[in-house]
Amino acid sequence: MTESETSLDRPEAIRKIVAPDAIGILEQPLTVWERAWNNAALRKVVLLIVLASAWEIYARWLNNPPQSEITNRQGAKNAKPKWLIGQKRTTLLKAP
User: Fold this and answer.
1) What is the pLDDT of residue 70?
2) Is the pTM here over 0.85, yes or no?
3) DSSP 19-51
């Protein structure tokens, strides 16, 4: 035998068999946070909230007002699309 073959041999491990009662608790129930985080829909909602918050913070840092403030400044008259202003309302059903 060469020296490299003998170095690959490992010593035998002899262990005592322990009764299952002596080990203790092997499984513990998950906490509320762990169970909630295992829910994929909840994780996605949390991610969307984080991204929306980051977007809002960045917009405010750039001094961009929210879209709702822009439409409120324009007023109800200008809130309509321009292609609808000045056109007649027509319907398929005609009133008698």
Assistant:
1) 59
2) no
3) -HHHH-----PPPHHHHHHT-HHHHHHHHHHHH
